[in-house]
Amino acid sequence: MGARRSLDLAHLTGGAALVAAVDTLAAVSETPRLDGEVLLAFATGRTRASLLAFPERTLDVAAAERFMALVARRATGEPLAYLTGEREFFSLPLAVSAEVLIPRAETELLVDLALRAIGRRARPTVLDVGTGSGAIAIAVKRARPDAQITASDVSAAALAVARANAERLGVAIQWVESTWFAALGDARFDVIVSNPPYVRSADVCGALEFEPRLALDGGADGLDAHRALLTAAPARLELPDGVLLLEHGHEQRTQLTALAVANGWRVTAAHDDLAGRPRVLELELGQGGAP
Predict the structure, then answer these.
(1) Which of 25, 53, 219, 233 could form a disulfide with 29 if both were Cys (CB 3.0 to 4.6 A apart)?
(2) Structural domain count, the chain
(3) Residue 84 falls within a domain, yes or no?
């Protein structure tokens, strides 16, 4: 913490701690005040509302030490979610660690589209490929308890995080350690959904370097994982109306659409996220062009 040596830990108030945090984080965060409030609440075990209502209260030394250590880590660019160990996704509190990609708000679109795709199907089957923290699989299962959800990931460490999240939130999901579909036998699914790695190798830098490269790096053009999925997924979909939902980068839609069509897919819809950026392709088997 930039002001650490000048702080009197024995008499440090919440208000003074926040001021020091904002000064330290202003250069690395777009929301230094919010970051400071979240970290102070986490370090003290108090609510943000309580901290803001009583800024004159003195912190105990242990809490002050915890807070300063957290702010120092945040100042290096480490994501807030890894510092607190939690990220909300689809109104669900998910535990996260450096073993998994931090769930993004834009990925909630995949959950909405998966739920729409299974619609009124009785006991629908859904596969979440590259599940990471389990965010998509758990959110779909919570919304549709009757759905049979399978979630796969190549990382055993990521699956451990996902299993723990599912147990804590009370949902039953089949977890499979697998490279894409390799360990899934001959199972087929009504809906396959995936937020695969799609960052170009050269762009995995800065704050992204704190997250698992395996979950981010999509190769030179960011589409290596999509190529693998587009090639292998046809044998895994229930026909004739199985649906494949793929998240992608906002500059990748045109190229990904061409890849999909070249692999025998029909693009039934192209969806933008809440910020208006291209985000998800909805695909079915069968020749055709973009909508």
Answers:
(1) 25
(2) 2
(3) no
Span 187-227, pLDDT tens digits = 999 999 999 999 999 999 999 999 999 999 999 999 999 99
| pLDDT of amino acid 155 | 97
Whether omega for the bond prior to residue 240 falls within 30 degrees of 0, making it cis, is yes
Q: Do 137 and 178 fall into the same domain? A: yes
Sign of CA dihedral 273, 128, 229, 231: negative
Contact 63, 113 (CB under 8 A): no
Secondary structure element (H or E) that encloses residue 220, with its range: none
**27 and 161 belong to one structural domain:** no
Where residue 8 falls among pLDDT bands split at 50, 70, 90? low
CATH number at residue 23: 1.10.8.10
Q: Look up the domain containing 14 and give its range.
A: 4-77
Residues 148 and 260 grouped into a single domain: yes
Is the model's pTM score more than 0.90?
Answer: yes
How distant, in Å, are the alpha carbons of 18, 21, 66, 101 from that of 69?
Answer: 13, 11, 5, 23
CATH of the domain at 114: 3.40.50.150
Q: How many CB atoms within 10 Å of residue 193?
A: 27
pLDDT per residue over 92-102, tens digit each?
Answer: 999 999 999 99
